Amino acid sequence: MADLLAPVRAFLGAATPEGWYRAAVDHPDLLLLDHANCEKKAASTALSLVFRYEAHAGLVACMSRLAREELRHFEQVAALLARRGIRWRRLSASRYAAGLRELVRGPEPDRLLDLLVCGAFVEARSCERFAGLVGRLDAELDRFYGRLLKSEARHFETYLELAREIATAAEVAERVALFRDRETRLVTEADHVFRFHSGPLTQDQVTSSGVPASALA
């Protein structure tokens, strides 16, 4: 596992705070529900790149494979939810994705570069959290996240390799540094809801909706 995680940790700006893991252990239902949402969004993101940038043959091939894999992972999380009797319900989005997307520029090819760098950080953070969850949850979830880590550990590098095909090394490094700073703040600063990509909670207890109990008092 250490060999798989070394590139991920070197890429990210900070480790996930322990407060996030405590909330994950206390609320596996929210963890799985939002994880399922994340897998769907990851597949959707990959497919949107396929449709928008269909002239980029290498990108289309990579994103097509990635979309299929993310959908398989969604199906696996959905099966876990069903086995555990966790009723599907819609959760509000965390601030994470929107916070990263604010940095994405409009004009091309800058937009594509930023989307790829953004995707790299989302995938790297997901992988880091998969690894951090192993050993903290029940046996079934431990096995599941251990397997998922092995299959997703290189996804962030796929995005980076595509970014380096359309921009210079200096341009990629500049955008990576910008996104790294924002991503680090999003996952380390106190958050008001627990989600798969949220920061640590401001309260130790959350309700089934992911809102701190104190906010409902």
Description:
68% of the residues lie in helices and 0% in strands. The chain is mostly helical and 217 residues long. Helix 1 crosses helix 6 (110-133) and helix 6 crosses helix 9 (169-188). The longest helix is centred in the first third of the chain and has 27 residues, at 57-83. The N and C termini lie far apart (43 Å).
What are the main properties of this structure?
217 residues, globular, single chain
List the helices and strands and how they pair.
Elements: H1 2-11, H2 18-26, H3 28-52, H4 57-83, H5 95-101, H6 110-133, H7 139-152, H8 155-166, H9 169-188
Helix pairs in contact: 1-6, 3-4, 5-9, 6-7, 6-8, 6-9
What can be said about this structure in brief?
The chain is mostly helical and 217 residues long.
Mean pLDDT: 92
Strand content: under 5%
H/E series: HHHHHHHHH
Specify the biggest β-sheet: none
> What is the number of beta strands?
0
Structural category:
mainly alpha
Report, as a whole number of angstroms, the end-to-end distance: 43 Å
* Unreliable spans: 212-217
> Can you count the helices?
9
